[in-house]
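Summary for the funding panel

The consortium committed to producing paired sequence-structure records for every protein in the target list. Below we show the first two records in order, beginning with the earlier of the two.
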Amino acid sequence: MAIIGTIIKGVISLKDVITPDLNPVEAQKKVFTSLLETAKDTAFGKHYKFEALLNEKAPQKAFADSIPYHDYSKMKTEWWYKLLDGEKDITWPGAPDYFALSSGTTGKESKRIPVTDAMIEAIRTTGIAQVFALSNFNLPADFFEKDIMMLGSSTDLAEKEAHLEGEISGISASNIPSWFRSYYKPGEKIAQIDDWDERVKHIAKNAKQWDIGALSGIPSWMELMLTEVIAHHKVSNIHEIWPNLQVYTSGGVAFGPYKKSFNALLAKPITVIDTYLASEGFLAFQERPETDAMKLVTDNGIYFEFVPFQPEYINQDGSIVADAPCLTLEEVTLNQDYVLIISTVSGAWRYLIGDTIAFTDVKRAEIVITGRTKFFLNTVGSQLSVNKMDAAVQHLEKILNVSIPEYTLCAKRYDDDFYHSWYLGATLENANVVKIAKDLDAFLSNANKNYKVARSKALKGVKVKVVPPEIFHNWSGANKKKGGQVKMERVMNEDKFKDWEAFVSNY
């Protein structure tokens, strides 16, 4: 009998019983007040008169009316550069000990996002809340005695003057609680290996020593790691190495496009739980098995606002127009895409994180990620978001009976006409790209009325090329860095797409 596991599961279940239901709207009001109270004497707080805002009759509205939207560039050039120069009390009390390097999917230079002690504690607390939520998934007691494989970026953080730098997954892993370290794999020594391929080789070599019950990481890199472990031990699936594997906590990107190829690596179904950990904080996690949606973390260091994701409010570069309306959690509605705006205990204020979301349950504050503002393809009025593209690719997987874990596209001009030029990552011999293009076009026309209208006007058609999935991974490795938080661009502008096509031509 799994005695320790039974005790842990009992504690988790008891916590669920004695904890009162959270009111997300009221929790957000408390977080909002706490953020402004704490930061009122910082340079940012004084500049925007936080103390006066707190005394307003409607402080949340006054906050939205008086403080502009900030993207990373605006926060860095106006405020965060002072932190990198060693100044204190700029956007949050004191100075951060860490900066999260965000590889992201856009931009050439890594962003440096401050990570305060308060944010590390918030991420740790949210992680514990997610563990407690496992009581909803009816997992057996022995699951709570198994190891957890966390495939993030290297925990060997770089020292830069008075702070440390690394990706948020590496920073988080380097600050895990002492009681958790015996469960954490691949362990500190392997996790510090900076070269991703070398780290994965060490994981594969040591895999049989561990009794892995859960995986955590971005789907694309998790798949590659599992494939390497399977190949190293010459087995047919990962359950031959880790027979007790039962849970995968996904994150970073939508799991849908990877579902087919990921499941092909398993011998039996496992529970997939979505999480939303960004460089700016731990924003949401899936709390219950009845839905694929994630619950916003409304009571722990992050204040959320929501801009309706409509073309008139979004600039071509993905930024928000200055007068775009903004809603609180109390004002949102179902099935409307919103641009997510956050203010945090790391000193990000009215910050455009770059993601779009939609609410599936307003009362529970449950959301799904629907795309990226910069990946909103509207060059010729097609208004395609990432979730529409994902759905189209999953449709192709069904009719072609093939896995397509990666793709990218561009609204590309051919002479005077625009075409959506798609690259699909799949192992597909003698692919009929003309038919695939027609199927893709037909699905998007039926699923999106704006796309259908665009197809009758400026958008002349769809072009498709099928390439091996590893080209996408090699592109990420060549242009950024393998593993960690790195994600493939789903949409490229024409200049980036030229570089991509030149890269593909070498294979």
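The next record, for a separate protein in the list, is shown here:
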Amino acid sequence: MKKNILVVDDSALLRRVICDIINSNDNLQAVETCKDGLEAYETLKKKRYDAVVLDVNMPRMSGLELLEQLQKDKIKATVIMVSTLTVKDAEVTMMALERGAVDFVAKPNNIIEAKGDFFKESLLGVLCAVLQTQKIQKLQSTKTSVQTVSRPTSADVRSPVQKKKVSAKGNKLVALACSTGGPKSLHSVIPYLPSNLDAPIVLVQHMPVGFTKSMAERLNEVSKISVKEAEDGDILQKGCVYVAPGGKHMEVGKMADGRHKIVLNDKPAIGGLKPCANITYDSLVKSGYDEIVCVVLTGMGADGTKGILSLEKAKPIYVISQDAKSCVIYGMPKAIYETGLVDEVVPLAEVASTITKRVGVR
């Protein structure tokens, strides 16, 4: 049975293009549309959809206002935002993700871009990945197929005796990677970390230029720990989160005095990703840290897995992955779990406490 998608946009032309894209997939169908948030609100009160593709800026009721109303009325909806790549929309999009949207795709600047492969692949990629993870979660909850859907638990991970021993007082770094669903998920992690965490955190979230700055600023406002968009030359400090800027790759470089700093580079995107978590993990091979705590949260694909595999050969690591049930998309955590390197599989709500327990506080 095809999944029903509701398309909400004030542009009739873009509604038609988005519907055509969705209907080009054999597993999806977009048979209904709304021209603004108010119309969508009335529609969603009466009918459930498998997903909603929602514009940010619309008359009468914006996408953000719709999400707030749905949240207020406890109406559940899986929402994918369509946002222009502007500073103003970046801020609004971050608020939308905090209010329930699972991810966003870049809005085309014109009809030629709208009909191009990039927008089509981005939209269908997110929709299909989100719906696939929902299917897995539904099967898990009903326990209809244990073999197919069983998710990793603490009993599945490798035994601690296989790990290199690390001193409890060792100098540690947390390297966190996430993608689709990450901005929302990070609000269940970063604000729950203590300000005196005994390690710095480098964070790679796949986002365009400008969006990472807005995300870092919003996280900093609600967190005890300091959060900033990383700048080239930043000296890593314990109790601070450094977010890789959109459009740049982030590396960690060891300085002559033993300290570490952020090194940004403008090399080509890796598999369409810039920043790419694999580059960050690869740079840590030559770091002076006694242990790297690798954390992999929700996201499409397998970014981070290759880098963690390389890092494990050179440094003591401890790997924490998010469980399938709490993921928006169980892609990146699944990829690292299947390597056999994962030490703990935890629900999103326990990620912060698991990190804190591993690295300690000052």
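Regarding this second record: The longest helix spans residues 117-142. Residues 144-163 have pLDDT under 50 and may be disordered.
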